[in-house]
Design brief:
Number of strands: 7
Structural class: alpha+beta
Largest sheet: 5 strands, antiparallel
CATH class: Alpha Beta
CATH architecture: Roll
Strand content: 35-45%
Distance between the termini: 24 Å
Number of domains: 1
Radius of gyration: 16 Å
Helix content: 10-25%
Number of helices: 2
Length: 129
């Protein structure tokens, strides 16, 4: 990773909650609010955005951990802002704290972890030719 990636680097993504983002089990929508798994997806995306500008051309990141505390609802139509902030950085590890907001209200918080590998090593690990 490029040495400019330090704790405190921050990236943000936003999305609007739509019906397909609601929790559904066996085809039945159980709540008309953003599902936890949707929040986790965007938490990982925000963490990836922290990393991507700092990867060397021969490196790639791999998600290794997600923690999500879902604190409150984000109804259909709500805009959710997801902010990831680097907290722990080494030459092969990036951990980010992540907070999701609807307006000023936090609806989820947690962390993401990524590990960085040389692309050649990752190809070998994943059994890619």
């Amino acid at each position: 990773m490029k040495p400019e990636l330090k704790p405190g680097v921050e990236r943000e993504v936003s999305f609007v909650v739509t019906e397909p983002m609601c929790p559904a089990f066996d085809g039945v929508v159980v709540h008309r609010v953003c599902a936890t798994w949707t929040l986790v997806h965007y938490m990982e995306l925000a963490g990836r955005r922290v990393l991507v500008d700092f990867l060397e051309p021969d490196e790639e990141g791999v998600g290794s951990r997600v923690v999500c505390d879902h604190l409150g609802p984000a109804p259909i139509g709500a805009e959710v802002r997801v902010i990831a902030t680097a907290t722990h950085v080494t030459d092969r590890i990036l951990d980010c704290d992540v907070v999701c907001f609807v307006g000023q209200r936090a609806v989820a918080k947690g962390m993401t972890g990524q590990r960085v590998f040389p692309r050649a090593v990752l190809k070998r690990i994943l059994h890619e030719s």
